[in-house]
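Sequence in, structure out.
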Amino acid sequence: MTADSAADESNDNILLDEPSTADLRAKVTEAWREFASALAALVPTLAPGAHVDVTLDPTASGTGLAVYSVSLRVLPAGVVEALAVGNAELPEGYRMDRATVADLVALGWSPPGVLPGSGDSFGLSSTQAKASSLATIVSRTLRDVYGAPHPAFLVYLVHDENDEPIESAPLATARHEPGIGEVLDLDDLDDLDEEGLSAALATAADDVPLEERVRTVVATMTKTPVDQLQVDTDGDIGIRAGSAMVFVRVRDNPPLVDVFSPILTEVEPTEDLYVKLSELTNRMPIGRLYIAQDTVWASIPVFGRNFQATHLMLAVQVMTGLADELDDRLHGEFGGKRFFGEGDKPAPSKQPTEDHRTGMYL
């Protein structure tokens, strides 16, 4: 080691030992430890045929069209098979390099196609008796390989062999997708006429492509013919909500529907803003707020597997109300530009006493 590299390492250690930084690292580490512990406790309780799907929320994580996920399936005799997304399932620009693939193999994953039935995914065979070790591998895969900054960016679904949801204890701070129907009452949809609601529910049949189901639900809610929906070049459906814009995006692998909104753009990512977004997210029954570069986003993911039209309806209704309220509130406090806020200008930036880069997990 050279003198310069030794000095650099010493400076890094000093930074990591700085109280606020060290405390943040400890909190994130503990959150992952809690997630792994909860997953290890869950796996032995599942009957043969049960699945656990864990997905890094692509909207909240800023991974764009790339969807990183791990799926566990319980087989007879306590065997557990796991699949992790491989390069063939990722768009160009998000595929893993050789070093990253080597990291997956080092964790215990077999390359795609080696484990029978794994297809384009990395495969791993374990047992319920080794749930603790398996949970550690899954956690490290999501954190170290797929880049999940915090378990709060994970969305999970536990279901049986017939895709029926299974009630389970929470996986730490990860979000349980079926909770959307448990937190909000269907009476919230009283602005929809019964005929339209029935049509949307009927179109949610499993034999209809997910994209078609989603478009029918959104068209029903907005009272717009399906062929007149506002769809951009990325295939995202746009819904105006006052001064805000809400988008609905359908992803195929794994089946997932993103309901998201760019609340503010050209906003300065200060510590005060991170704290505010954390506080607001903690008070939200579903969804989350986060900042990526200079844009504040709101996101509510809905699983496409065992798709429920009412879940998407609630997500859209919550997001349209939330986005239109929050863009005004946050703009007044932090400046930036609203989607339809003509003439908006950034507010004068606040001068923090210290530059704490708290990380987007908040």
